[in-house]
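input
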Amino acid sequence: MENPHILCDSSSLISLTDSCLDGIIPFFHSKFNVQFVIPPSVEYETVTRPISSDLKQYAFSAIKIKKMIEDGIIKKIEPSSQSKTDLILQISNNMLYTKGRPLNLVHKGESEMLALAEEMGVSNVLIDERTTRMLIEAPFRMKEHMEKEFGVSIMLNNENLRRLSDITKGITAMRSSELLILAYENGFLDKFGSMKNAALEAALYKVKFSGCSIRFDEIADYIKSVVRS
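output
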């Protein structure tokens, strides 16, 4: 990887820890010196809130993430200014409208992550949440998707689209499934020997059911390519 930093949002960390695949993070950290980075709001969503509240179903994931922060594998960095986070929230949540009302598309954790990515000049962000990823990659396709899914007409604020595109220009959104595939290609699943392809397929289904927005056909196509190779 050219830039040894990956900015993470809450959805990707939850997918990996819930799938018991969080070992991928120290794997890349130790083998390629990749520094995984989160803003404070992502730490709150994935660690502080589950541990301090009654969200017992997320507590073990929170403890594992907290340990990686303590070990320096995941680093918490706060953006130098709150204004960029607020700007991303404002333009993202006033971009698509239905029946004259703006759609709330982005939360603070995602906006703070994008603000920090721009500030640090980091091009790789790890995000499983479909809405924000589509805003980065293909906002027009997202408009069409939502119109088809909900059966309503969606209006697009082109000026806010342009402003968000300027902020996210050069940023590549990666899902936990793609990080898993990259880890597989670099030996992460070699410990399973002749079963490593089966382990990969099982792991891809696991991250899907843990919240990663990968389609069944994407999993099938990649597994076929692995078998052919």
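quick obs: The radius of gyration is 18 Å.
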